[in-house]
Amino acid sequence: MASGNVARLICASLACLLLSLINGAPVAYAAPVTVTDSTLDEVLESSTNLLLLFKANKCPHCQRMAPDYEKLSEDDDLKGNDVTLATIDVPSNRGSSIRFGIRGFPTLIYFHNGRIYRYSGKRQFTPIKSFVMKGYENYGDGEEVPPKPTFLSQFVLIGKAVWAELYDAAQGKAGMVGYAMIVLMGILVGLLGMLVVFLITILTGRYDDVDKVKGD
């Protein structure tokens, strides 16, 4: 009888120890979800709220922001509000970057109730969390989520993006991309001009030959 009580006491002690270890163990949170052009809409449909980071792996600003973004994915308040954190690599997913008008990185967009809100604050844990919790309301009504572009509309979006870069470059506000576009446009215009001159020269020469034949 005594041995039975001892056995039960040992089992109870082990159970209490196990429960204390479980309760005291750190909770493992999932890292931000990685999305692509092909999976973005699926993630949007399955997420109540989505904070999406447009980044580039070699971008130093993105690298400095990474620890804060990882910390946000572990935040209980955001998880309690059903906020999913995700990242998308811009150089590998041009379709999404064109679709959402991404012109630099890191860029944060918050998807909430069918609207998008573009974050423009500091790239740090506290201001980003404040933005997601309630701060996005200070950004007005937001924008409608742009539909997935068709083959034709992609050309329109690309044209708008190129025009925006050229306009900023003309205003002296563009980065290397804008200035590279200006150089490229200059080269193309120069080549086009050379082609026009070449064609005019050929046609003029032919007309001269015809006149000579008629004169003979």
UniProtKB/TrEMBL annotation:
Q: Where is the signal peptide?
A: 1-30
| Residues annotated as domain Thioredoxin | 19-137
The UniProt entry's coiled-coil ranges are none
Q: Which GO terms describe its cellular component?
A: endoplasmic reticulum
Gene Ontology MF terms:
protein disulfide isomerase activity
Q: Which domain of life is it from?
A: Eukaryota
For biological process, the GO terms are: protein folding
InterPro entries annotated for this entry?
PDI, Thioredoxin-like_sf, Thioredoxin_domain
Gene3D superfamilies per record: Glutaredoxin (3.40.30.10)
Recorded hits in Pfam families, A to Z, give:
Thioredoxin
Which of UniProt's keywords are assigned here?
A: Membrane, Signal, Transmembrane, Transmembrane helix
Membrane spanning residue stretches: 176-204
Name of the protein this chain belongs to:
Thioredoxin domain-containing protein
